[in-house]
Structures are given as C-alpha cells and as structure tokens.
From TrEMBL:
This is NUDIX hydrolase. The keyword Transit peptide does not apply. GO terms for molecular function: hydrolase activity. InterPro entries: NUDIX_hydrolase-like_dom_sf (IPR015797), NUDIX_hydrolase_CS (IPR020084), NUDIX_hydrolase_dom (IPR000086). Residues 6-134 form the Nudix hydrolase domain. Keywords: Hydrolase. The lineage of its organism: Bacteria, Pseudomonadati, Pseudomonadota, Gammaproteobacteria, Enterobacterales. Its cofactor is Mg(2+). CDD domains: NUDIX_Hydrolase.
C-alpha cells in the first residue's frame, strides 16, 4: 500500500446569523468547501488562514477572530492520492457579501437544507458539517 502525500491547510468555518455555512468553489473544480488554503513553509495555520481569506475573499481578519476547532484529516477533493490535514477555525460575526478573488470561482452561503444539492468536498461533508450542525 502506498502512503498518500499530505497537504497541510488551514480553513474557516463561517456560519451567518441565519445558520448558513459559507462555502467556496475553486476555479475549474466541482467541489464546494471551506475557504482557506495551503500553509507556506514555516507559516502557522492562523497566519495561513488570515492570508488566504484576504487573497481569496478580500476578507480581513485578525488572530483574535479565530477560534480553533481542531485538526482533521480526510482525502483531498481536488488532488488525487493526497491526504488533507486541516487546521479548522471558526470565525464569528461575519456579515456582508464576500466576493470571489484569486482562484475562487464561486462563494455561497448555504443553508443546511441545501447541503445535499451540492458536490461537497469530503472534509466538508464527512467532518465539518457533522461537527457544526450536530444535534445538541
């Protein structure tokens, strides 16, 4: 058995006041996922997420805006034979329209009732949604 190559990313869980989850789709891909991206060499997950959100959504945050939810692993949606290692952070009190930039093609606020109608990245579908929308 061949070990899968690992990709380390940082990603954001952003839920608005209506309970909708912010998802993005990168250009020339089919899967919707959390906004975020790969860590540069020597970069912390927090710094990577702050940089990626600014590049991809023109969304400016500070380290104090991030609440760590943990590190999760799943298969990478857009890179075959790769394993995704994701540091996930919640960001609260986001309002207004976020516009796609850089490699982001589409930005959507998705209500839970619509999750089944989208192609979701494995990490989003199998781990993030159950974590965020678990019955209390």
């Amino acid at each position: 058995m061949v070990d899968k190559k690992k990709i380390h990313i940082a990603a954001a869980v952003i839920v608005d006041d209506a309970g909708r989850l912010l998802l993005v789709r990168k250009r020339n891909t089919s899967y919707f996922m959390q906004p975020g991206g790969k860590l540069d060499a020597g970069e912390s997950p927090e710094s990577a997420l702050i940089r990626e959100l600014q590049e991809e959504l023109d969304f400016v945050i500070t380290p104090g805006d991030l609440t760590p939810l943990g590190q999760f692993t799943d298969v990478a949606a857009n890179e075959p034979d790769h394993l995704l290692v994701a540091d996930i952070f919640r960001i609260q009190n986001v309002s207004g329209e976020l516009q796609p930039a850089a490699e982001i093609e589409e930005v959507k606020w998705v209500p839970p009732a619509d999750f089944d109608s989208l192609m979701l990245a494995p990490l989003t579908e199998k781990q993030i949604i159950p974590l965020v929308y678990a019955p209390v």
